[in-house]
Amino acid sequence: MTAFDAESGVLLSRTCAAALRSQDDSDTLVG
Amino acid sequence: MTASHPVLDAYAEPQTLVRLPDGRRLNLHVSGAGGATVILAAGLAGIALDWIRVQARAAQFARVVSFDHAGLGFSDEGPYPRNSEAIVSDLEAGLASAGIEPPYLLAGHSAGGVHMRTLAARRRADVMGLVLIDSVTDDFALRVGDLGLAAERNQWRRLLALCEAGALTPDTTDYQRYVGVPQAGLTDRLNRAMHLMRTRPSYYRTLISESQALSSLAPPPMGDDALGDLPLTVLSARRAEAAAFLQGPGQAAAWRDMQSALARLSSRSDHRSLDCGHDIPLSRPADVVAALRAHVGA
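Output (structure tokens, whole complex):
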């Protein structure tokens, strides 16, 4: 069940994808 | 490569290492403040970092705790088997050690939902609500069929052997596919941390054991209203077929039906089907945060 969604990107783990996408979250820089 | 980034780099090292009764250390990632504490449990092979998009937002109105299961991330390896009871026992001891008191709002993604149901059953009086995000019932194998867990464990066994032989090295295809760093866009420190996390034998031993425990969840299935009147939100993926572990429209339909079954576990539930795939904390963090906010009344 760790195999990620097609929408998350092939060959990119969920954890890496979350880290990458978080950089677009301009509202969370203080988090 | 990004030289540094304050939010990402906070995950490149342990944040709050708490000592468990047997001396092991458990890594909690704690942020925000508020009357209620939101506990976030990642799915199989997930760590606190999986919640980064949710936690930073939710910390604006609540205290939020994500954690690395024993053997993953920055937490010490634990005794086996790594079943839900073991994971939850560590979490309970870690929360006590950190002085993080109830009430707790529990949120679990995928297999993390099983752990949060386990905690809710143990600590019913301390739990104010439950958010299950594209999670599974205990009888998921009967409902959905083979999810490829055994095949995935075989891959991990192979990677464990490579690790133990010192052969999971950056020049190999296996490393590039399964360790998967460095990633352009991540910071140097986070790339280095993820390299260390995923090249330790304990990482693969833990994944194999957690997966085996998931495969061994014992029916009989939970009856409707098993959670009584505990406030429950189920967030599910309308595009279940996007998940690589579901094969074909039949399995995707059964997965969606299973989400409805989860919603029937409480007499006070709200089920929202989102137009996305399985990785909801990643793709739809604002919807997860909205559900958390509704529970805590912020």
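The mean pLDDT of chain A is 66.
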